[in-house]
Write a structure and sequence with these properties.
Length: 71
């Protein structure tokens, strides 16, 4: 597990290179609300989705939203 702005960039690159799966969790604060997003950046030998998935943390675990809006 890596945290943003804690590890040297060289270490982050090495870990990402050798990992089979790399997931980036992002949170953005808007006033008193937190918007959480998950990016699946790497899955060994598989194509990764090119979008961010919104998620919420609940008492039962992580609630991942996999539906997409049609405009």
């Amino acid at each position: 597990m890596l945290y943003d702005d804690v590890h040297p960039v060289e270490d982050e690159i090495a870990v990402i290179r050798y990992a089979d799966v790399y997931i980036h969790l992002i949170d953005e604060r808007h006033g008193n609300e937190i918007e959480r997003k998950m990016e699946i950046a790497k899955i060994k030998n598989a194509n990764v989705p090119g979008r961010l998935f919104p998620y919420n943390i609940t008492g039962e675990g992580i609630d991942l939203s996999t539906t997409a809006r049609v405009v």
